Amino acid sequence: MSIHTNISEKKYRKLTVQVSLDGFSYAIFDTLNHQVLAVEEVNFNDFSKTNKVEELYWKAFIDNRELTKTYDDVIVIHNNNLNTFVPQALFDDELAGSYLQYHTKVFETDFFTFDAMDNYEMNNVYIPYVNINNYLIDQFGPFDYRHVNSILVSKLLDMSRNVEEKQVFAHFGETHFELVVAQNRKLVLFNSFEYATAADFVYYLLFTAEQLNLNPEHFKLHLLGDISEGSELFRMAYKYVRNVSLLDVSDLQRNNNFSEEKNRKHFILFNS
User: Fold this and answer.
1) What does each C-alpha distance from 49 to 41, 45, 135, 137 come to in angstroms?
2) Residue 2 lies in a domain
3) Residue 79 and residue 77: Cα distance in Å, rounded?
């Protein structure tokens, strides 16, 4: 979406907001120099759970004045696990909801949409936060929106180019993690799991590896998202899988001045 049609009015700034029910994060980009200028996180845990999510966003916008400035482009990324990937050869947009019903509780009133991923011949079908979209339209006007896992999977598939062995990627959020298995830009597996402990993570990881006949002594496991070498998640993974590493984000880091840890945590946001 381009708000400014006159080049003299362009700000060369892009805002990306990654939204969820528990809070949001946002990044500001310099589109002329292709750099990430700022990143912030807003957590709703400190607010009353009785508040409507729209009210929580309204309060956060008052406190974060950067969100009220003018941008050439605004992108909203929906952060939930209400999605599934469907090969384009099997896809019918009029049946979008039916692809989700096997692993997600869906209702007739749900709104379904999808991100076309033409480079990989598949679509990501998902349920966006319609109420949050409606609130943000009032703030920004029209904007483009996508699902977090469209960006995550696209970038990881690109990183698997010319690697013929199956690679396993685990992306961590606060309460759920995504497992992506890629092989030379082909998606072998995607799944999202809720977890409370590092043991939960290892259980799902080893179960998935067993189903795919992946030997923990041989496959490479790359970790990203909200994780560091000092975390219990890393230590537990290292105990059961021989080849474990934090994802190399050096290419991403060239576009900003943030730490490796922050680039891993905001991998999706920075790649938006």
Assistant:
1) 18, 8, 18, 24
2) no
3) 6
Give pLDDT tens digits for 42-100. Answer: 999 755 566 789 999 999 999 999 999 999 999 999 999 999 999 999 999 999 889 99
pLDDT band at 256 (very low <50, low <70, confident <90, very high): very high
CA distance 30 to 26: 14
Instruction: Enumerate the β-bridge partners of residue 191.
Output: 179
How far is Cα 183 from Cα 271, in angstroms, rounded to an integer?
Answer: 21
Under DSSP, is residue 93 helix (H, G, I), strand (E, B) or coil?
helix
Looking at the fold, whether 66 and 102 belong to one and the same domain comes out as no
**Residue 109, domain member (yes or no):** yes
Domain that holds residue 244: 151-270
Count of structural domains within the chain: 3
- pLDDT at 3 exceeding the cut of 50: no
Q: Are 176 and 193 in contact (CB under 8 A)?
A: yes
Amino acid 105: pLDDT: 83
Q: Are 1 and 18 in contact (CB under 8 A)?
A: no
Q: Cα(253)–Cα(230) distance, rounded to whole angstroms?
A: 21
Q: What is the mean pLDDT of the chain?
A: 93
Greatest Cα pair distance, the chain, in angstroms, is 58
Cβ 154 vs Cβ 178: under 8 Å: no
The pLDDT tens digits for 151-168 are: 999 999 999 999 999 999
